[in-house]
Amino acid sequence: MIELLFLLLPVAAGYGWIMGKNSAKNQAHQFNRQITSEYSKGLKFLLDREEDQGLEHLINLLEVAADSVEHYSTLATMFRRRGELDRAIKIHELLLKHPSLNEQQAAASRLELAEDYVMAGLLDSAEEHLVWLVKMDHSEALDPIITLYSQTREWQKGINMFEAHSELFSKEQHFKAIANFYCELALSDNNPSLMRKAISLNHKAIRPLYELGLSAYTKEDYVKAIYYWRELICQFTFFAPLFVDKLAHCYKHLNLTHQFHQLISELLDKGGVLIKIQHCQALLEQGNTEQAFEFLTDSLKRQPTIRGFSFLLQLMGAQDKNTKEVLDQIDKLVTSYIATKPDFQCQHCGFTSYTIYWNCPSCKHWETTVPSKGLDGF
């Protein structure tokens, strides 16, 4: 009898373990049924058009069901798009408090929460979360924090962040932004050395070269102006309309017009209509009128532009006094048409303007607003 008891003990223990396991399974199953039931209630509220009650029900359920992070993130995104930022913030704040979130989920929730704060105008709170993410080497926080510092004009903070975490910066847009931060700070502090620091960045930016050239030109230091603008026009020829006339003046003032003509000739293949007009003017100054006509008409056949046509009308009027008055009237109409067209367009979002914006007012990208191209462009 005692031996039989000893044999039954393991069986009893095994049975107890199995029953305990089944009990745990039953509890988990019951819990899942409860969660499903609660979800169903929330969804029923939504289907019955009782949106406020349904949404509040689902938010409160977050404290019970921590496994549905993706669903709640989607819900919060929906709230943000509807402009219900208080609810979006509430969900993301609750998500961040959950110990079940892994590192990736927590970082994503923190980034979304920062976006909620930005849209709600709580910029200090947004900055706090974005700075934390950058310090934890989450490069996805760079775009929003650069946009934030651009909005608040806190150039020094952006520069400090770059100098402390430069290894995170990889996108060309990031380097352009920091280069412009240096420029903005240099202009506000009257410290040109900061612009030269911007030039030393891994990715070349347009504005530092332009601003340094403009500063030298304003001071009538034409040698320096040529130094910076020549490098700029060779690297970013499409930006020539912003300063090419001033650059021509620099060369002329130093009696180096022939060097300017040579530079323009080298840029013909990649330059726009203004570069071609400059080349025509060089030919005219050298007495090669017929060659200038042939070059311009051939260029217009291959790539028609309104500005090129306007210059052709001026040439024809200058050569034929009998038709000059008529051609001048036509040119006035063409010039009036050109004046109605925006001179600049953002290559990222398509925003157009009559003036240069280093930071696009629409998409907030740096140095994407460039002189217009095509039939009405430069």
How would you describe this protein?
The protein is an all-alpha fold and 378 residues long. Among the domains are: 84-168; 171-266, Alpha Horseshoe (Serine Threonine Protein Phosphatase 5, Tetratricopeptide repeat). The chain contains 18 helices and 3 strands. Strands 2-1-3 form a 3-stranded antiparallel sheet, with no helix packed on it. Helix 3 packs parallel to helix 5 (103-120), helix 6 runs antiparallel to helix 7 and helix 14 (257-267) packs across helix 15 (273-285). The longest helix is centred in the N-terminal third of the chain and has 46 residues, at 2-47. The chain is elongated, with a radius of gyration of 33 Å. The termini are far apart. Keywords: Metal-binding. GO terms for molecular function: metal ion binding.
Task: Describe the structure concisely for a colleague.
Helix content is 70%, strand content 2%. With 378 residues, the chain is mainly α.
Low-pLDDT windows of residues: 1-19
Give the C-level CATH assignment of the domain at 171-266: Mainly Alpha
Report the biggest beta sheet as strand number plus sense, adding barrel if it closes.
3 strands, antiparallel
At CATH level 3, the topology of the domain at 171-266 is Serine Threonine Protein Phosphatase 5, Tetratricopeptide repeat
Q: What would you say the CATH architecture of the domain at 171-266 is?
A: Alpha Horseshoe
Through-space gap between termini: 106 Å
Q: Into which percentage range does the β-strand content fall?
A: under 5%
Order of helices and strands: HHHHHHHHHHHHHHHHHHEEE
Mean pLDDT figure: 83
**Tally of helical runs:** 18
Strand order of the biggest β-sheet:
2-1-3
Shape estimate? elongated
Portion in helices: over 70%
Strand element count? 3
The chain-level structural class is mainly alpha
Radius of gyration: 33 Å
Protein name: LapB rubredoxin metal binding domain-containing protein
Domain LapB rubredoxin metal binding: 344-370
GO molecular function, one term: metal ion binding
Keywords: Metal-binding
